[in-house]
Amino acid sequence: MSTNGTEGAKRRVNFKILRYKPGFIDPPRYDTFAIEVDERMTVLDALEHIKATQDSTLLYRHSCHHASCGTCAMKANGREDLSCVINVFDLDSDNVVVDPLGSLPLIADLVVDMAAFAERFAPLGMTLVRESEFAKECEPPAGIEQYTRYEDCVECGACLSACPVANTTPFFIGPAGLAAAYRALTTGDRPAKQVFAHVDSSEGVWRCHGAMECSAACPSDVDPGGKIMALRRELVKYKVKRIFGSREE
Amino acid sequence: MAVPIQQQSTVRRAIKAWFDPRGRSTGLIAFALMRLSGIGLVVYLLLHLVVLSTLTGAPAPEAWDTFVRMAKHPAFLLLDVILIAGILVHMLNGLRVTVVGLGFGTNSHKGLFWTLMAVAVLLVAYAAWLIFTK
Lengths: 249, 134
What we know:
- Chain A has 249 residues and is an alpha+beta fold.
- Chain A has helices at residues 43-53, 115-118, 158-162, 175-187, 192-199, 213-217, 224-243; strands spanning 10-21, 25-38, 73-76, 79-82, 95-99, 106-108, 111-112.
- Classes of the chains: A alpha+beta (249), B mainly alpha (134).
- The A-B interface holds A 18, 20, 27-30, 75, 77-80, 99, 102-106, 162, 164-165, 167-169, 208-213, 215-216, 223, 225-226, 229-230, 232-234, 236 and B 1-7, 10, 13-14, 16-18, 20, 22-25, 27-28, 30-31, 34, 97, 100-104, 106-107, 109.
């Protein structure tokens, strides 16, 4: 919606949104809402407009509105992204299908259970603290850096949703978890032996089949696919060294 | 009809995740081709073994001649071309997956895929020419 008093281009767009409320809208269905959008409107703006004017029961996750928190990731016309940065005009369609993220259990409407995503970080003991969130003007608590995980990652879950492998097994550590493990390895946050023990399994680094859809979907340019491959190379080097007698860790 | 992921069967999820191209990039095309060609080659191997096993116990010359006549039919030759296409796609894409999977050329994986598929197309065309003309 124009806030500066000027009238820009407008278009009427149909938003076909997945609806699911266990016991009420069950099985899920798509509801279509037609609204007028302007050239600055994002998908999140559209959802908020629909909730305010047409259906107050519509559920979705969001927080910061500026691609910083990673809360509002969902699929628009089949592609994962943060809904707060998807410009509706950029989708270049009068019909926009909005789905929740894949690979994660659906709770209601566009809300998925992110605990299933966060649990993939747990074995390495990483918390949600990010290095970029440290205030420069004050000294961080001693030892907090050991909890730092992949700092560019906003933990939105888009990579997990886009991964064709993660969509078929809930046990795969997944792109974000493996990228975090690679970061832990390269920064020395965790001993190599601990990282490799975590990722060297059939549900770890070897489960990835290199589709690289995670890197294509990542809104923060983490390139989790590239990190998984680099992690795999480090693991192979580690194993070769062990075969030839080195106990370097 | 949409179904929550926790209520979907693994097969249904796999089919959607592996072969639904909406919103996806080159990576999924390569991933899907790898699975299709892999499954196809396994099916071919089983059929091949079944056919050969039926020939070994039969009166050899007649059964073998009948099979060879069938194998020279253009429809059968077309299957040979499809088989070679499957082998080449799986082999060349497998080389790419091996290289990329060890952390080399991850930023060039799309270009590498299309280059290798172009090589596969040329080789399949050459093979088809040999099969239908020689």
